[in-house]
Amino acid sequence: MLKGKTALVTGSTSGIGLGIARSLAGQGCNIMLNGLGDPAKIEAVRSELEAEFGIRAGFHGADMTRPDEIAALVKTSTVNFGGIDILVNNAGVQHTSPIEAFPPERWATIIAINLSSSFYTIHHAIPYMRQSGWGRIINIASVHGLVASANKAAYVSAKHGLVGLTKVVALETAGSGITSNAICPGWTRTELIEPQIIARAQALGVDIEAGGRDLLAEKQPSKQFVSIEQLGQLAIFLCSPAADQITGTAIPIDGGWTAQ
Ligand code: NAD
Question: Using CA atoms, how far apart are residues 144 and 122, in angstroms rounded to an integer?
Answer without folding.
Answer: 21
